[in-house]
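Q: Got a minute? One more chain.
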Amino acid sequence: MDIVLITAVIASLFVVIGAAEPLAARLRLPYSVILAVLGILIGSGAIFFLRTDLTDALNPVAEAILKFPIRSNVFLYVFLPTLLFQATLGMNLRRMLDDWVPIMVLAILAVILATFSVGYALSWASPLPLAACLLIGAIVSTTDPSAVVSIFRSISAPRRLSRIIEGESLLNDAAAIALFGLFMGFVMLGIPDPKLGDAIAQFPVLIMGGALAGWLAARIAVWIMSLFSAHELALTSVSVALPYLAYIGSEQIIGASGVIAVVAAGLTLNLTGPGRLPPHAWVNLREVWDLLAHWAGALIFILAALLIPRLLADVRIEDFALIGVVILAAFAARVVILFGLLPFLTFLRVSPAVERPYRTAILWGGLRGAVTLALALAVTESLRVPVEVKRLVGILATGFTLFTLLVQGTTLRSVIGWLGLDRLSPIDEAMSRQVVAVALQTVREDVARTTEDYALTHDVVRSEAKVFGDRLETAVKTAEDSEDILDRDRITLGLIALAGFERDTILNRVHERTISARMAEKTLLDADRLIEGARSDGRAGYQRAARRSIAYGRAFRAAGLLHSKLRLSAPLVRLTADRFELLLSQRLTLRDLGSFIEGRIRRIHGRRVAGLLSNMLSRRIELVETALDGLRLQYPGYAEELERRFIKRTTLRFEEREYEAMREDGLIGAEVYTTLMHDLTRRRATAEGRPPLDFAVKRFELIKQFPPFADLDAKSVRRLGRALKTRYVNAGSIILRKDGALKHVFFIASGAVELEIAGQISRLGRADMFGQVSILMKNAPRSEVRAIAPTTLLVLDVAQFQILLNKIPALRSAVRASAEKRGIDPDALLEDFSTEH
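A: Always. Here it is, folded:
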């Protein structure tokens, strides 16, 4: 085909793509549905003009369209890696982990069940061999997220629903295409009835091999990109090469799933890229991939739609019955998963609950699209597949795709409306009123300044001010006096607004580079959890999310075990350094929230709500400071190094801002500006590096914090330091149980604990000790000790404690003081000890 005609067709398709988006918005239909309809019309029109005798003028154009070199390899090797890779880069992976069980169930189990459900149903209803039927099942089991997500975003559907749909659609592409490759091999080899054991045995190899290949390719790419960190175009170029090399390498070299390799590569870059690449470079890279994916998604859809008239050219009456079988079997499999397995997993507390309206929307939102058509095209192109199999694969896959697009796609918005997912909840409605009131008050202040600056006509200002004032008064009264807003709802609304402002503050800090890219994703995730926690469970949900943001997570505990059991310190060093930086970033952000409470929230929700929020903010700051103090005690000087790094980065940001302002004002030229920015970039690269953490436990400095040991000589401190062990406990952890054997005495280096003895509760803090009374006193009541804050403990075993008690008078004095504090006779306590020893 002439290159000129190919170029003309592609350029014309871009015009169609550009026109499709506003048309979809006007018709309130999914963008992909409009693309599919336009593609079908173009393809049908080309066939019509070739066969009609009305005119021959359009025959060259029709031939160019029908003979356009559309091959399945173009879809699978050019467009599909782009779509999958961009989807992984745009995912909030850590947020999706909250719903990983339903996502994995829908992406893997639902695909497998749909494949076998459709396959066995077709095997019963058609003369096709089982292998061919299972192949069709794999082709139609992959869903297309673009149409559904576009609808959800246009009507402000719950974000959790969008996350589940996106996660499912991304991963089920990988699972379905892996199954497609498996059963395609059976069909081409002429194996009519494959053994399920053979299929199941090959599936993990495809998955694991692809995942390993993608991870390795991404790690190499990130290493190369980190070498080019000062050159944004080089970073973007390497990222463009990554998915294609991962796909081809996995498919052609390893023999594993290329789709899985692309997904693994994208997920790896998503997790590691923000911490290794400059923030602005990462943002620009994401924007480039968004544009590439938009073009790829539109082209793959419209090109696939051009094929639909040809794929349906040989359709017969009985084929419509088989299309119905495919539709019913696919729906039945999805119903079993959504309304059977997921509720059962929720009952077993394995999966978070997915509400019934969500499950219904997911069921009806399982649209099929370009990937299904591309896989069907790959079958029709194969010379090793029987002709009747190729005909039915093309017809059934195309018919099912058209049903989902033209029936489900056009009615999905109505179904979502019927389910009530397009309506704001009462608390969101109330929140919208608060937003209007706050916004109008701010607008009034800004307009007042503007009219004063420009000396506008007094009568005009007064008349407009009256109109605006009436509107503002109505908005504020509606926000304050709305009967459907209870006091607890006002607190919830205030917390949502506070968490939203915290998120905006973090974004500004990241833009100004006062919060590093390494911490940006974690702090933003914590802010999102605060918003959703407040939205779903009010004050309790907000506080739970706040505690979680500073808690020692499972990764930290696992790293601690590696350090203590196997002496592998690298993971714990990295996580501890991350915790230092995270706490400093949180403290930096939290100190900006007080003015927002007083300036915005108090005006709408009143003094009482603002006071409650201020108290909650103070407690959050106290928790962060406590956790930071514990780390400072353990690693003195490291927090100061991070603060020094923060000051350097802030200084560089201000310096950059000044250079930009001077250039915009024409005070310096492009040459001078470029030279200054090169020097600033060099100094910034030095300042971005995080100082190394000396992980040697600073027990000597901790020991000196305790009054009983403050006057010990250096030799005694070293001996005591070797005897003491360090233990970190999270808030809520049980340190001692009433029925547990007591083998240690504990000294609190930082944090706080709560003791319950005979129904009486007392609290101990920094520099206190516990456990000594039960060791020294006969028949002492046993206590339960629980950490009420992240706590660092120094632990001494019983034998060492008894030796030190005889040698260190200050320790005996401390024991007496602690006994008196708890109402125990210190002389009787020490007398019991002397009697035994």
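A: The mean pLDDT is 78.
Q: Perfect, thanks.
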